[in-house]
Amino acid sequence: MSPKGRPEGESDPKRVSAEGRPATDSPIDLATFQALQETAGADFVAELVDTFAAEAPLMLAELRSARAAGDAERFRRAAHSLKSNCSTFGALALGARARALELDGLDADPVRDAAAIDALDAGCARVVMALRELARG
Amino acid sequence: MGDAGARLLVVDDNKVNRLLLIRALELQGHRGVGAENGRIALEMLEREAFDLVLLDIAMPEMDGFQVLERLLANSRLRDLPVIVTSAVEGLDSVVRCIELGAEDYLTKPVNPVLLKARIGAGLEKKRLRDQQKELVRRFATREVAQDLQESGFALGGKRVDASVMFADIRGFTTLAESQPPEETIELLNTWYTLMFDAIGAHGGVVSLMIGDGLMAIFGAPLPLPDHCTRAVRAALEMQDTMALFNDERRLAHKPEIRIGIGIASGAMVAGYAGTNERATYTCIGDTVNLAARLEAHTKIAQHPVLVDAATHAGLRPGILARSLGPVTVKGRSAAVEVFAVDGIVK
Predict the structure, then answer these.
(1) What is the CATH number of domain B153-344?
(2) Listed residue (B116, B298, B259) closest to B175, CA to CA
(3) What predicted TM-score, i.e. pTM, was given to this entire model?
(4) ipTM over 0.90 threshold
């Protein structure tokens, strides 16, 4: 885990999906997402994606607020929560970014955290878009 | 309750996780109810019945560890199965949860097949625990069941200050010989039901049933500050109940039932006696022997309720009792002062 919030292998061209296919540009692991649809039902997953789309900005806002307040516990919890949802939907790279923030905690340099949260925010937008596309089938 | 159709509480601050777990439960035929954090979960557990809890760890206000600690300290909720579902990494969290009484620990995202198996196992454990509690409730009193649940079972006793009552049906052998055994069993069951109600209504615990008699304790396993008054009031209620019961028997052209009651108060040892496999909650000591002797003495004294001096001294105002003077009872070298209880001041 080199630069803060940047998981190793994120842009690894050799990355493959769980089914052994070469990874696409999608930020979502298709096997994980399809397994979720199979077990919970496609309609339900579409609703769940909407819930995530509504909740993700709140989690990011909580991260920024915790950073501003210097509240390490809240910071870790918000990153943990985002990581957990990424893992559910198969947003592996974004999940790895969130995990890095959870495990590293508050950085001594607030600017580095702010940059990491910005990157997370941008990644989140991509993930939500991709999830909505996949959910529509 | 079988495995299917259970009611589960899903405690998770993350809405996506909460909805997904509730969905997984619904697909398994259960009902899931959500709670956003540990504090809300405990409030819901206090006022509603759940069969199992799925508990997250990292939550605001009150986290999963704190919930487990609270459940462990609560005798009513201690046995409720809890499966921790968390994305918190590291073995330390798992160990801590198990030490705090969690049944299991599932890592998020939770595998639905694994979840189903763990829930099935958790519900089966709860079913067995409930069955065990029901058995204890059936064969022990509510107070003894509570004492067992809170303090656990251990042979041995502790010194308590309490009142002991012995009650017995007069002329039972003659009565039993004059009627079919089925009728005698029915009579005994009715008698026990009436006496249990009267004793229980005043905080007493029936610890022993011997043929046509019983022994009850007031002040153990749970202490009762006014145990003398409670025991005597129970005795008077037992007499009143028997009067009503005899009205019915007279109408059915059946012989009346008379009872004798002896009460003694003071120090005694209360606890579980027997073996580790089979034991009963009882009291022993000189006070207990005296109560049994007083009950036997009701036949000679021709008075249905007799108490010792300690019980008389412990009575609150409002109960009519008179001294019958010193009486020599079996098993005692010195005479003891005996009081006859006549009723309550109107």
Answers:
(1) 3.30.70.1230
(2) B259
(3) 0.61
(4) no
